[in-house]
Amino acid sequence: MNRPNLWSERKEILFEDNHLLIINKPAGLLVQGDATGDEPLSAKAEEYLRFKYKKPGAAFVGVAHRLDRPVSGVVALAKTSKALSRLNEMFRDNKVHKTYWALTGKCPEPTSGHLTHWLVKDPIRNTTKAYSERHGQGLKSDLDYQVLGQAGTRWLVQVNPITGRPHQIRVQLSTGLGTPIVGDVKYGFLAPLPDVSIALHARRLELQHPVTKEAMCFEAPVPDIAHWEAAKTYY
């Protein structure tokens, strides 16, 4: 069995025990398979576990939450059905604290605050629209944000989503503050990044271990890509 390339240097593995596999997902990689047929993170993780533990059959990998394909950062995978069930419950009940870093082209005003929108997803176009007032079937979506400072020619914004809606951070920063995320042409930024990622990174995930109940915090370093270099001074 060939060693999976994704894990060869183990930079992506932030933590592993009997129940959890915490990954720093590269931008451009799906978390779970879709209609494209591209190999997702979950399949790569299964391959890694099969290789590491010399499993003759399939390894269990459960996906409790997702990051958009062009987004990098912390993803928690479950290695047991017990862990998956409890992780699903924690994410559903908003008992997981998530911190994202985003780069914007201009400084948000005000430089910190709370955003509330009602989000409506268009599954055909795979886009989400944000409304400032209650709207039809729109789902109420909340986040807190704070500008950490300037990062080169960009601004580094820390975002703590309170709810977990599709494209929530991307559309709320664009609609609510007029500051689309760098590279996110879907939500208003003028030009894509060379690697077609967007400058949104799941920086930190804080949760209670689903089995041991221990309080845990996982931090993912930003990608080694030019547009993130200046943000590293904020570690």
Which key features would you list for this structure?
Pseudouridine synthase, 235 residues, globular, 33% strand, 11 strands, alpha+beta, eleven-stranded mixed β-sheet
Q: Given this structure, which CATH class is correct? A: Alpha Beta
Provide the domain count: 1
Strand content: 25-35%
| Count of DSSP strands | 11
- The ordered string of helix (H) and strand (E) elements is EEHEEHEEEEEHEE
Helix content: 10-25%
Low-confidence stretches: none
Rg, Cα atoms, Å: 18 Å
Apparent shape: globular
Described by strand count, sense and barrel closure, the largest sheet is: 11 strands, mixed
How far apart are the first and last residues' alpha carbons, in Å? 38 Å
Based on the structure given, which CATH architecture is correct? 2-Layer Sandwich
Output the structural class: alpha+beta
Q: What does this 3D model show about the protein?
A:
The chain has helices spanning 41-52, 81-92, 168-177, and strands spanning 13-16, 20-25, 62-63, 72-78, 97-104, 112-122, 127-131, 139-151, 154-161, 200-208, 215-219. The protein is an alpha+beta fold and 235 residues long. It has one domain (13-234): Pseudouridine synthase (2-Layer Sandwich). Strands 1, 2, 3, 4, 5, 6, 7, 8, 9, 10 and 11 form an eleven-stranded mixed beta sheet that branches. GO terms for molecular function: catalytic activity, acting on RNA; pseudouridine synthase activity; RNA binding.
